[in-house]
């Protein structure tokens, strides 16, 4: 082995190791983010109850804004960190939950509902958001617990199911689900961009059907 | 192999590997920044809706200020980190999306719209910035997902070869130089605009300062 061979081996070791470490860290942090955002979303009645007890409007406003900012920032982080589920190389190399990409789509759909609707004041929109978060959590946690974290424990039929639910032991499904997720992301992204272009970034769509009346 | 050789190999590996790691970390982090920037920009109607519900002016101001700061800072950081797409050695040697420099140019155009027009008051300026950002993001994500991050997929080999910078160096460098020229034009335009604007505002201030002085001189003369 020459000095250059050794140098190249160490360089590729550093890069491959650092990449896998980064992806592993993201995969380990994602369940925490999912749990925290679910906790904050489901804890809405508790926050509202607390806001009603404030005697000063400033404190109530600040609590509500911090709550909304934290909750939505976690949803946004969840979507951003789930981007690795869309990369074919990553899903075929790393041990990730099989339906993680679809869970990310649910999170993105939540953001779309928040953009186009008003889940904090409209019951229908709130129900849609809650349903999407529940579905996303199921799509993430079931393959994560049974597959990624349980494949060393299960054997036989359960072992097969466990292996099926992990991306690098079921690469063809993982890549296929990745493409479906990319298509869903692209469609929802186009809807979000179209909506924002239509409204021009304003809070509501200008009502063009109402005739203007001169007073 | 002597101990000195091993020591040299480790030193070189740490230096070269560290540089390569830094570049690959930036490349891996850029999709995160692009997505966040896009979401924050597109999420403006939601932020405005939340802002309207604030009972106090202070809460609304804090909310809006935080939104603006985070949104624009992320856009600027994304552009700053995307500078690697304008470095020929990196473009030729690293696996980058071939249209990354064009995406960076569109990001700069969105920033230029923000700097030259009041996009938070002017609907058309906001739409223009949105179009630039969406185009930039599309040019970034497409080759990243289906070329750079899809080398394991044999049926995408042709696409991956064509849209990855270090496997299609000639066109990658052409795209890079064209984008760099575009970026230089935008920066020169911003520079000239800033100078003209500063000249106008400062001339006005100097005139305002001089007016009472001439009046005082006239009064002293009497």
Describe the structure.
The complex is a heterodimer of chains A (215) and B (222). With 215 residues, chain A is mostly helical. Chain A has one domain (29-199). Chain A has helices spanning 3-42, 44-52, 57-81, 88-93, 100-116, 123-148, 156-164, 171-199. The longest helix of chain A has 40 residues, at 3-42. In chain B, 82% of the residues lie in helices and 0% in strands. With 222 residues, chain B is an all-alpha fold. At the A-B interface, helix 1, helix 3, helix 4, helix 5 and helix 8 of A face helix 1, helix 2, helix 3 and helix 6 of B.
What key attributes describe this structure?
heterodimer, A: 215 residues, mainly alpha, 75% helix, elongated, disordered C terminus, B: 222 residues, 8 helices, 82% helix, 0% strand, extended
Write the layout of secondary structure elements.
The complex is a heterodimer of chains A (215) and B (222).
Chain A: H1 3-42, H2 44-52, H3 57-81, H4 88-93, H5 100-116, H6 123-148, H7 156-164, H8 171-199
Helix pairs in contact in A: 1-3, 1-6, 2-3, 3-5, 5-6, 5-8, 6-7
Chain B: H1 3-42, H2 44-52, H3 57-81, H4 88-93, H5 100-116, H6 123-148, H7 157-163, H8 169-221
Helix pairs in contact in B: 1-3, 1-6, 2-3, 3-5, 5-6, 5-8, 6-7
Estimate the mean pLDDT confidence of chain A.
Answer: 87
Order of helices and strands of chain B: HHHHHHHH
The main pleated sheet of chain B reads as: none
Determine the structural class of chain A based on helices, strands and strand pairing: mainly alpha
End-to-end C-alpha gap of chain A: 89 Å
The number of distinct β-strands of chain A equals: 0
**Helix coverage percent of residues of chain B?**
over 70%
Helix fraction of chain A by DSSP (H/I, runs of at least 4): over 70%
Oligomer: heterodimer
- Runs of chain B in which pLDDT lies below 50 for 5 or more consecutive residues are none
Number of helices of chain A: 8
Total number of distinct structural domains of chain A: 1
Q: Approximately how much beta-strand content do the residues of chain B carry?
A: under 5%
Mean of residue pLDDT values of chain B: 87
Number of helices of chain B: 8
| Greatest interface (CB-CB under 8 A), with counts per chain | A-B, 53 and 58 residues
Indicate the radius of gyration of chain B in whole angstroms: 25 Å
